Prior knowledge:
Helix content of chain A is 42%, strand content 13%. By secondary structure, chain A is α/β, with parallel strands linked by helices. In chain A, helix 3 (27-41) packs parallel to helix 7 (157-170) and helix 4 packs across helix 7 (157-170). Chain B is an alpha+beta fold. Chain B has helices at 3-14, 34-48, 61-64, 105-116, 209-213, 218-226, 233-248, 254-282, 286-307, 327-352, 355-361, 369-375, 379-384, 391-394, 414-438, 487-498, 507-514, 518-522; strands spanning 19-24, 27-31, 52-60, 66-75, 80-89, 94-96, 119-121, 168-173, 185-191, 195-201, 316-317, 320-321, 454-461, 466-473, 479-485. In chain B, 53% of the residues are buried.
Amino acid sequence: MRIIKNRILKGIVTKPLDKSFSLNEGLETTGAELKKIIQEKFSRSLHIREVDTGSCGACESEIISTTNPIYDIQRFGVSFVASPRHADCLLVTGPVSKNMALALKKTYDAMPEPKFVITLGRCALDGGIFKDAYYTEKGVANIIPVAFHIPGCPPKPLDIIKALITFLKAR
Amino acid sequence: MDYKAVLKELNEKLGVETKTVFLREDEIYLKVNLNDFKTTCLTLHKVLLAPIASLFALDCRKDSGVFEIYCSFASAKCKKWFFVVAEISGDDPKFNSLAKDIYSASLFEREIKEMFGIEPYGNPDTRRLRLHSEICPEIYPLRKDFNKPPARGKAEDYVFNKVEGEGIFEVPVGPVHAGIIGPGHFRFSMAGEPIINLEIRLGFKHRGIEKLFEGKTIPEAINLSECVSGDASFANSLSFCTAIEKIAGITPSENTQMLRAVFLELERLYNHINDMGGIAVDVGFSFPAAFAQIVKENILQLNEKLTGSRYLKNVNSPGEVKITWDKEKAEAAQEALKKIYKDFKEIKEILLSSVSFMDRVDGTGVLKKKTAEDLGVTGVAARASGIAADLRKDFPGIYAKAKFNPVKQEAGDCLARLNMRIAEFEESLRVICDFLGKITPQPQMASNYNIKEGFALGYAEAWRGALTYWVKVNKNGVIERCKITDPSFLNWQALSFCVLGDIIPDFPLCNKSFDLSYSGNDL
Ligand code: SF4
């Protein structure tokens, strides 16, 4: 146990300091801006529920990346929640496979008002590369109302954070 | 072992001559009558001691009025892929099911039934996998005369296997899960705490990718292959490109092959470290989990530096990689990998020296070797249960140059799968560094090839396991059929066996120790 304790302490002190931060210049200022908006408009926290409706998985991976210790979107007031009942925002990826259309609708209906939907990744906008496939609904907007789209295939973590700011500012 | 010896043994046992219709360096196609199809497959299965690698159909009714069915086996000993081929009449399409003799055939047969409407005669389970019956009527999308389906079909419920008895209750989970993860439905039957049955229903992400491939030009198809499973996009584009290279009759230079191996291993690295972290998350051990996320991010950033894409998209093309390579890149990679290795070692020690962590993973979710063999499990999951199968060793290609050492574990539990990932991470790092020293700088090369009519199998050992693309190109140079066999397709079943007797809180742990793809399975 002592070894672990040691490592944990050492980890906290040294990890965030190395190159990760120099690699992501601008993250701090961007983050501070995001935090300010969320404090003003959402009384300190924005809860997001994520639904995958047929993405390739890379979009999910990048959303998860925004929560890693390098980007750490939680410290700006954004958190990902496990239930739609706790969520202010629904973040949807994928072109909406026909099998997922109902589940997506139900998830949306389960959210309390006020609520809004953000789509992420080319697929979610209009089906993207899967647009011509026989088993998709060609984008999220055909199933539930969408307030904003985060472009990319997949968007990088910092782009996701920046896009969130643009959207929340205008709201 | 020579493949001719195999054919001789096969013919003797069968009592009929099989006809070799096509031969390539690593592929052999045997044509038989439909009546002999089943026995030939079973005999070959026994002679080669190999599981079914893939079983799929083809609609050739326009040209010859028949469907074709292909069953493939990989033989490490002969360094060849064996295909048994038969024709199925277009009027009354059916064939004798293999499922009762080779269990792993069952899923493929269900797939053939729903996609082509060809009846696997004698298969006890013909429920649909991907075109959910409550959403869509029977439409057979992979038939060539398929038109877009009607918007909604008849409502017909999917019947889950039911366990009955006193005190048995069911726990349904999904399709939408609590985490940031793909959709799937899990139905647990419980007797008190222990799970006594788990049925997994997938297909929620089905988009119709195999159909979408049809009619695409080669560059379009490469882009599409990268979106089959986003966390294995390089392995997918690599498998696809090798198939095209075989059809076009070109061989990539050694330098290109080494570069590809480096990227394939980088993909393995970021996914394996992600899983190590994921396993820690699922037992609530958050420090190494966060640490692993940092390492993953570092590898993704390295990917971006080397190729311009964090997920190694847009790199492969037939015969070439679409990037420049110079000394700075090699040095940057070496530098970054050194640091990554240091961090990795820390994580490994933190995990393996924590008693409470080890207590959770040791002995949890055991997949027995016999079960794994019967299910045709591949990749990390198979090797953790003592099956020594790895395409990088069985069909080494460029890996022979790095003297690749495959790893294997025996226990088959979550710890074994974790140890597999740790050991593979180390071996992959070694291979990458070995190749980095050998690769010479090269400018961006134009991919130069003439596509011909033909078919071929492309394959790669993706980080989850063997990934194969069987591609047929027609005379216009566009894709006629593309059959993708993702390792997850076979491995998902293993998950439902390995959790039996464990408790539900161990399920996420088992799930993460396999870390299978929803999108690669659902296509
Ligand atoms: S937008 Fe691109 S990265 Fe995202 S799910 Fe679709 S194909 Fe994958």
